[in-house]
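Checked the freezer inventory, then went back to the computational side. Two predictions to log before the end of the day. The first one is the construct we discussed on Monday; recording sequence and tokens without edits.
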Amino acid sequence: MNPFPRRLASVDAFRAITMFLMIFVNDLWSLKNIPSWLEHATRTEDKLGLADTVFPAFLFIVGLSIPFAIRARQSKGASRNSTLLHILTRSFALLVIGIFHVNLEDYNKVEAILPKPVWQIAITIGFFLVWLDYSPKMTEKKKWFLRGSGILLLAVMAALYKGGKPGDSSWMEPRWYGILGLIGWSYLLCACISLLAKDKLAVLTSVLIFFIGFNIADEAGWLEFLDPVRKYIWIVGSGSLPALVMAGVVTSVLYRQLTEKGKGMQSLLILGIFAVAALVAGFALRPYGGISKINATPSWVLICMAISLACFLILIFVMDIKGKQNWVSWLRPAGTSTLTCYLLPYIHYAFINAASSANRLPLALRSGGVGILKSLLYALLIVLITGVLEKRRLRLSI
């Protein structure tokens, strides 16, 4: 097998496929009469739907990418401190966007000055202004004017925000930080650990085991003595989310180290055993809390970890070993401009929510198999638009 490259086609493909599926499952709210296995399981269900596997897959991919990103910066001469600052900056950006998004859920449509769709579009424009990948040909003065405009727009939107119920309104709160916020916290924790560990596999594996053990201990009620500090200091997702990220980190480092020693196939065997062990452990723990994404149970974590690892191994074999990469080229923008792809539906959904029900698609196009096809085409359309914007350098860079 060839020496380990700076980035793997399989990682980019996995990210693109996962983002496509994320757009698809996020659009399922608009459908009726679709199979329950496509949707999220409820809090009380012991069940794993397709939608329950997408977020953990993305966390796993975040972990896969961390060692690549750190090595890429080091190859350019970046110091550890500058890399740490980069990690902190990225995490902060994800937290900011996540907090704005999570407050959309509790928007007070009655007492707020702006209609919810207007506020939603405004904050999305603000995100683009602040974190757009501006052309190097643009003057620094113009860049900072646009970034400053975005910061001002977000500040104004935050000041105008009202959440809660009529008569009992509230201002913006972190709440559960939203999807991007959870990714931000998990990325911050695992990227800092990876930076300090310097690709020491034993250390990274120990941290992974710790996160899994912490999640199991919390589910079992063994950490109740820490309840007084839980509100102030806690591991995001009770260890579940960073466990998925760290599984990606361990996978990436192990695969690279063995591949560089000419033991690529051996690495696939070891990772395959890892996937089987995670799957078996996940089902073994199922009686203790069940499989639940909402409750972030150990069973959900381990089973999704196994699924993500298995998918990645298949993509390694197909794309990196066999060299068959063109079949996923149509999804590539979702892997290279991921955050842009994720944010675009927020603009579309704002317009949909602002429109009257009479202007929406008829129920026949939002039901059953036809509805599923509609959501698949919608996800594809978002990816294609992302590609068009990317060619015009209209993409976010965090």
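The second is the one RB wanted added to the comparison set:
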Amino acid sequence: MTIPGGVPADSARTLLQGAKPYLTGDLVIGNFEGVLADSGESEKCGTRKSVKWTEAVANPAVADSILAAQARRTADSLAALRRRPARRHAKAPPKPEPVRCYAFLTPTWLAPRLKEAGFTHLNLANNHANDFGIDGRESTEATLAAVGLQTYGPLGRIVIDTVRRGEAMTTVGVIGFTTYPFAYDLLDIPRSVAVVDSIRPLVDLLVVTFHGGAEGSAAHHVGFVAESLGHEPRGDLRTWAHAVVDAGADLVVGHGPHVLRGVELWQKRLIAYSLGNFANYRGFNLSGPQGLTGVLQVEFAADGSMTEAKLESMRQVPTKGPAPDSTGAAADLVRSLSQEDFGAAAPHVESDGTIRRH
């Protein structure tokens, strides 16, 4: 569906303003979930649908008139149905379960906002990167490259960068995993291990991100079994994350469940199982814990071990974007979830978001 008024009136120039001071570092990595294109065709929801960004989507005044027209058409349809005579002895059919299907298309002119906010690298291994097929994926990659952002996640696309500090140079690798065939597949643990193991000798520091796990308000906890989204397998995340750390990952960060999850230390390496949603504008439920988010900041020693880590607590308000949260609600939630899910393997999360080993 198209979300009328789905683009901020200021072309999102202020959407990430509150988070910008925290998006600093040698690498600033995010998960871009969707497609950057100005038009496209999607077959994701069962039928082929063409979408094109127009003034009607970007202009709230026009959008309101569209919503009013849609409401009138719905009312007219319902009135027509009520006028139909009921068939005698006909048994009412069972009410179908509501089906929600989303295909995310973001206009290309918003891409500079990501660069301006501070991002340097974006993951494209997720369930919405393929919403508009290979054309959509290619448009996303080209659009982000044009504004100076590196991408990773699709098969064959692994980041290997160098970071210089004075005379010292550190080589950093970044790999993204998800559960779809166009990307590195976390459902195949032996192959995931092989991919990480093959990159490990080439870099001084190796960061692995993943998009997997159940989704929604009931998905805060990391289970001991494979997770799913409906009938779709979404990974045995504990087993997978431990395996890629054993294979050489120095940091593992997840972003699939769309809510915050706990953090764990495995082999002295940090695993953050989900950082939740970070920047949504319209069309998402951001009430309660679903509006809690944050920026995970991690510093490393030369040997790849974590020296400092902190979750900067933020909160999303609809149409406003993420902003710092002085109550520290995100850090409090992550502390609680970490203790419940990982016990002695959970690091200590302080009220200001600082993450410490025991």
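For RB: The first helix runs from residue 55 to 58. The first strand starts at residue 29 and ends at 31. Let me know if you want it refolded.
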